Amino acid sequence: MDGFSMIFFIVIIIFSAIIHEYSHGWVADQLGDPTARYAGRLTLNPLAHIDLFGSVLLPLLLIPTGMLFAYAKPVPYNPYNLRDQTKGPALVAIAGPLSNFVLAAVFGLLVRLYPVGSLTAFFSIIVQANVLLGVFNLVPIPPLDGSKVLFAIFPDSLRNLKITLERYGFILLILFIFFFFPILRPVISFLNGVFMGF
After folding, report:
1. What Cα–Cα distance (Å) separates residue 156 from each residue in 21, 51, 151, 164, 180?
2. Residue 116 burial (C-beta neighbours within 10 Å; 0-12, 13-18, 19+)
3. 86 alpha carbon, distance to own chain's centre
């Protein structure tokens, strides 16, 4: 990936992360929790979502490593406001990755419809960025969305395991990123192929 493509990828990751966070807030609002709306976060205005470290500094620091990633400020929400306390948290959590897969599907369709060229190259980068975000966020390690989906189906007997995972989640996530991230690559490659018809 050349320098311009890397910059474009980072920009797309940031805007895709904003849509990801907006989706969490929108679904939470629909399910009875207006926290994100009251906080002014139910908007696609980047200024409401940009995180100085996650959206600016982290991508710049990662460029030399070839590992491109960024995130936006998490949208606040109060699960106790949700009308459905059982399924609600899982639906709010899954909304973020689902929005990324929808974006990947839309731009993957454009890759199929347009003749191969610079435009389809940019569309394919958008697909790749969104597949990366969607798959990564489904990893069941706190604070990622996958953990919230997992916890929603955890029986009460596993409450202590949930507390332990939440306590050490950040450490586990760092270990995963540096040592186990390659296990996601086959999934990411497969989904890229599915969305773009390769």
Report:
1. 28, 35, 10, 14, 29
2. exposed
3. 22
24-28, 142-146, 174-178: least confidently modelled range: 174-178
Residue type, 177: I
**Domain, as residue range, for 29:** 3-196
Q: Long-range contacts for 123-129 (Cβ within 8 Å, ≥24 apart)?
A: 124/192, 124/196, 125/5, 125/8, 125/9, 125/12, 126/12, 126/16, 127/192, 127/195, 127/196, 128/9, 128/188, 128/192, 129/9, 129/12, 129/13, 129/16
C-alpha 138/C-alpha 95 separation (Å) is: 11
Q: Provide the CA 120 distance to its chain's centre, in angstroms.
A: 23
Peptide bond into 155 cis (omega under 30): no
Q: Which two tokens stand for residue 119?
A: 């435009």
Q: Structurally, how many domains does the chain consist of?
A: 1
pTM of the model: 0.90
List, by residue number, the catalytic residues: 21
User: What is the distance, to the nearest Å, from the Cα of residue 111 to the centroid of all Cα atoms in its chain?
Assistant: 22
Q: What are the tokens at 29?
A: 């609002």
